[in-house]
Design goal:
Distance between the termini: 58 Å
CATH topology of one domain: Aldehyde Oxidoreductase, domain 4
CATH superfamily of one domain: Aldehyde oxidase/xanthine dehydrogenase, molybdopterin binding domain
Structural class: alpha+beta
Strand content: 15-25%
Bound molecules: dioxothiomolybdenum(VI) ion
Radius of gyration: 28 Å
Oligomer: single chain
Number of strands: 29
Largest sheet: 7 strands, mixed
Length: 750
């Protein structure tokens, strides 16, 4: 597509790296060819809680091709990340691999075999004998010792206890979300290669700079001796935000055998040693008036974490800001268990927190005989009441999302009685929910170079995890310079480039736009200055008052501001006259701390779901999904829509399929494979639609754009269970919705 000028911002430009991906030319972490490479295969614990009494490597060591076997008894020293102290860098798990002789969770690496081939390493790993002194596993909240001390999160405003006691209408229910496992197509993987004292890591990472810092701290070497490369990422969903043990193991092994080492985390261990979304058990109590005004909310959460690190799934945060309610108390308690360390998974905190809140709102609407959308409008938060004093939202157009969604979905045709909407053999159920996600930005440095051959190059040590980041860099450079998209090279995913943000929290778009813009403007200014001073400059002639005329760059040409681009000269010519190969500028931008304190930044949305229940064959499917999103200006309507629809697909999986099931006997995730851990597939997904209401949020950045990687998932699970109730009369409070629940419920109501 050739678009220039302002219209390129917002245009549905195809991914600039798309052809590399579809032709297989894009090199993911383990695709990098490497001479003399060796392979690391882990020996993972088969118990959840134990002391390693003995590791016998005598047979394995003598097997063909085996180079070394590393375990706690012969490990090189690794360190804990310093970042945990000031939160400047963050590891997935602070305990370095092989730190001691303890096993804290099933699937923990207890040794790694390094061999000439993958098969040799795998064979030998199977022959490493580990003797455990086991202790009982704790994998369920009920089996854990009662948590001591105050809750990890406590929030209160007003006086929720008496308000709930005296409320005329009450809801008091407990909702459970199971542990979910990130299952990106591309598994976690590392190739580690030492060049003298420097280590180069080919990774599948959502944050090359953070990864570089953590590896520097944990390996105990200076940060400039670590380079992390992740030019492509086969998705992460949060699981690849922070470095996990395999990356350190690969680096240590490569040093020891003095060869590059490749370590691919097997799919089964993707369920243990690289994070997951933890289970949350959430009690929600709501007090309301007879006409549906919220009087009080209590939100109490129990959440497992691991024995080796602390991860907080901040589920109560959304409850404190989504609706207007004077009296609110929220508590969250962590329960350490014998599981791998949890980590953010798309929409962390808010997504699991919205499920009980939006479900309880639906239960309240039914009790009051109110339309669920009307109940939400009655309690609309005009300001963010979670702050004291309350803060205005930087930009909120949720009412419009509700209204457009309701209109487009046909919400007014909904008849509230359970099972009242039929379509052939199927019973339809309709549900809706509110969606929200934080809007914020961080700092970034971007370098933009304008080349004498008419091309441009933009670089930054952020990365594109499949969201479209490469493309929006090019869009901004093209918008400002008029250089066509296909003449703009974007280089990301390399920690040696100018400092860039981690791809997390839906913040990259808002973060990098101002930096790309500033760097491009800076580079243009340098070309303009050069145009004014070159020997045969047509712009030397003084304008009015003797000043040189104001020059701008349009369509790749430098020209006088009030004259057409054709009157000027191509920027290549300016560079050629000065015998310059290029002119470039590096710019760093950061959010304005005053604005961030003045406003509450959130994106919003409304999600509408139709399910079709066929009682004859006990089939439940989602048959329609509509999402309306208020996320400020959308920079690319193709990749933007792709983000929202992809998240909806994930939400349908969360509602109907996804659940990691632990075996109480050995703490093993039983369904640690693609046959048993079910994610949405094409056959599960109906036509999806997504509408953006576009109000630029100019408090956030000059484009008014927010990130949209997570919000699409936010309300789906609760909208689905609401629709399931509407179709069947069965209220599912423990995800995922299982056919067994529906059949049992039908028999009870029959
Ligand atoms: Mo997202 S869970 O911050 O990758």
């Amino acid at each position: 597509m050739s678009t220039s000028g302002n219209s390129i911002i917002g245009a549905p430009i195809q991914r600039i790296e798309g052809s590399l991906k579809v032709t297989g030319a894009a090199r993911y972490a383990v695709d990098h060819p490497m001479d003399n490479i060796a392979f690391g295969v882990p020996v993972a614990s088969t118990v959840g809680n134990a002391r390693i009494a003995r590791i016998d490597t005598s047979i394995a060591q003598r097997m063909p091709g085996v180079l070394t076997i590393i375990h706690h008894g012969n490990t090189d020293q690794l360190f804990r990340p310093a970042g945990q102290l000031e939160q400047s860098s963050r590891a997935g798990e602070v305990r370095p691999p092989f730190e001691d002789d303890k096993v804290y969770y099933y699937g923990q690496y207890v040794a790694v075999v390094v061999a000439n081939t993958f098969e040799q390493a795998q064979d030998a790993a199977a022959k490493v004998k580990v003797q455990y002194e086991t202790q009982p596993n704790v994998v369920e909240i009920a089996d854990a010792p009662p948590p001591q001390g105050p809750p990890r999160i406590h929030y209160a405003r007003g006086n929720a206890d008496p308000a709930f006691e005296s409320a005329p209408v009450k809801i008091d229910e407990t909702y459970v979300l199971p542990p979910e496992t990130h299952n990106p197509m591309e598994m976690h993987a590392t190739i580690a290669k030492w060049e003298g004292e420097k280590v180069i890591l080919y990774e599948s990472s959502q944050g090359v700079v953070n990864h570089q810092h953590v590896l520097s701290e944990m390996l105990g070497i200076p940060v400039d001796q670590v380079q992390v490369l992740s030019p492509f990422c086969g998705s992460g969903f949060g699981g690849k935000l922070f470095p996990w043990p395999h990356s350190l193991v690969a680096a240590m092994a490569a040093k020891r055998v003095n060869r590059p080492v490749k370590f691919v985390v097997p799919r089964a261990l993707m369920f243990t040693a690289v994070g997951h979304r933890p289970l949350t058990q959430q009690r929600m109590r709501i007090g309301a008036t007879q006409d549906g005004k919220l009087l009080s909310i209590h939100h109490d959460v129990f959440q497992p974490t691991s024995m080796v690190d602390t991860y907080v799934e901040a589920a109560t945060g959304v409850t404190t800001m989504l609706y207007s309610c004077e009296n609110l108390t929220a508590n969250q308690t962590l329960v350490p268990m014998n599981i791998g360390t949890p980590t953010p998974m798309r929409g962390p905190g808010i997504v699991p927190g919205l499920f009980p809140l939006e479900s309880a709102m639906d239960e309240l609407a039914i009790k009051l005989n109110l339309d669920p959308l009307e109940l939400r409008l009655k309690n609309y938060a005009e300001q963010d009441e979670s702050f004291s004093p309350v803060r205005p939202f930087s930009s909120k157009h949720l009412r419009e999302c509700y209204q457009i969604g309701a209109e487009k979905f046909g919400w007014s045709k909904r008849t509230p009685q359970v099972g009242s909407m039929k379509s052939g053999d199927e019973i339809l159920g309709w549900g809706m929910a509110t969606a929200t996600w934080h809007a914020s930005r961080g700092s970034a440095t971007v370098r933009v170079r304008l080349n004498a051959d008419g091309t441009a190059r933009a670089t930054c040590a952020t990365q594109d995890i499949g969201t479209g980041t490469y493309t929006i860099f090019a869009q901004v450079v093209s918008e400002k310079t008029g250089i066509p998209i296909d003449k703009i090279e974007v280089v990301l995913g390399d920690s040696s480039l100018p400092d860039g943000p981690t791809s997390g929290g839906s913040t990259v778009t808002a973060t990098i736009l101002p930096a790309v813009s500033a760097a491009t403007n800076g580079a243009i200014d340098r070309v303009i200055a050069a145009a004014q001073t070159m020997p045969s400059s047509p712009f030397k002639r003084a304008g009015a008052g003797g000043d040189p005329p104001k020059l701008i760059m349009t369509a790749g040409r430098i020209h006088v501001a009030d004259q057409p681009p054709e009157s000027g000269i191509p920027f290549q010519e300016v560079l050629a006259q000065h015998r310059l190969a290029a002119l470039e500028m590096e710019s760093r931008t950061a959010p304005d701390p005053t604005t961030s304190r003045q406003f509450s930044g959130h994106s919003f949305g409304a999600q509408f779901i139709e399910v079709a229940w066929d009682p004859g064959i006990a089939r439940m499917r989602v048959s329609r999904a509509l999402t309306v999103i208020d996320a400020g200006k959308i920079i690319n309507h193709r990749t933007g829509r792709n983000q929202i629809l992809g998240a909806v697909v994930m939400g349908i999986g969360m509602a109907l399929f996804e659940e990691t099931i632990y075996d109480k006997r050995n703490a093993k995730p039983l369904n640690n494979n693609f046959a048993d851990y079910i994610v949405s597939t094409n056959a599960d997904i109906p036509d999806l639609d997504c509408i953006f209401v576009e109000y630029p949020d100019l408090h956030l950045n000059e484009y008014g754009a927010r990130g949209i990687g997570e919000i699409g998932l936010a309300g789906i699970a609760s909208a689905v269970t609401m629709a399931v109730y509407h179709a069947t009369g069965v209220r599912v409070r423990k995800l995922p919705v299982r056919i067994e629940d529906l059949i049992a419920g039908q028999q009870m109501t029959a």
